[in-house]
Specification:
Blueprint (H helix, E strand, L loop, with lengths): L1 H8 L7 H11 L4 H26 L2 H26 L5 H4 L13 H11 L3 E6 L2 E7 H5 L16 E2 L10 H11 L3 E6 L2 E7 H15 L2 H5 L1
Antiparallel strand pairs: 1-2, 2-3, 4-5
Helix pairs in contact: 2-3, 3-4
Length: about 220
């Protein structure tokens, strides 16, 4: 069984080690991003072949492994693209600095109305300049409508929110959000809230990166 796992791990497909070895070999002949894409394409080809074989042989395990390999190859390609695109970009460069904060004693009903007016899904909660927590539309939706008039933000907000420093890499913000399933991070400098970075900010940065790569000067380099 051990030898079978060792051989399986050497398949030239992400997320197995064989896929990383293949990428390293391609990277000696082409840029790292292109090497990742080439290795990911090969991994997806292996995955499709496994799925087809699983269908014809009615082998559920082969279908599952093929699906696992295809998803792993896609995720590796996506993560590498994001990392390269945002390399050198600091959180302070793309965060929203003009942050609308909420007081902990604000009524939930009035906050919900504010969210609809401003089309924001979450706000930092600040008291006397100190970040107390963060509240999102999802937090409010957990409260029955009849109780929203009698409850305030402090009773619902998420305390001790995950934060990030302004000089952290933007790619680190992507990783934190993905791992913790959150959509925004307060940006803290010397214990002061100086901004907020959201998935929308990161998407805009990625779009600008794509547009930059499409410029004639970028294509010729």
């Amino acid at each position: 069984m051990t030898y079978v796992l060792m051989i399986f791990n050497l398949l030239p497909a992400f997320p197995m080690d064989g896929g990383r070895v293949l990428r390293a070999w391609f990277a000696t002949r082409m840029p790292y991003a292109a090497a990742t894409q080439r290795a990911a394409d090969i991994g997806k080809m292996f995955a499709i072949l496994m799925v087809v074989a699983g269908i014809f042989t009615l082998n559920f395990l082969l279908l599952l492994i093929g699906f696992f390999i295809y998803v792993g190859a896609s995720e590796e390609e996506r993560a590498t693209t994001i990392d390269i695109c945002l390399r050198g970009v600091k959180v302070r460069n793309i965060m929203t600095a003009d942050v609308h904060t909420i007081a902990p004693d604000q009524n939930l009903r009035s906050l919900l109305n504010l969210m609809f007016r401003e089309k924001h899904r979450g706000y930092p909660v600040v008291d006397k300049g100190h970040l107390e927590g963060i509240i999102t539309l999802t937090d409010i939706q957990k409260i029955p409508d009849a109780q929203r008039d009698s409850m305030d933000v402090s009773q619902v907000m998420s305390r001790n929110p995950t934060v990030i420093e302004p000089d952290a890499e933007a790619s680190a913000a992507v990783k934190i959000m993905a791992e913790r399933g959150i959509h925004r991070l307060p940006v803290i400098d010397d214990n002061n809230l100086i901004g907020i970075i959201s998935r929308e900010d990161l998407v805009r940065a990625m779009e600008l990166c794509s547009e930059r790569d499409l410029l004639p000067s970028a294509r010729s380099t």
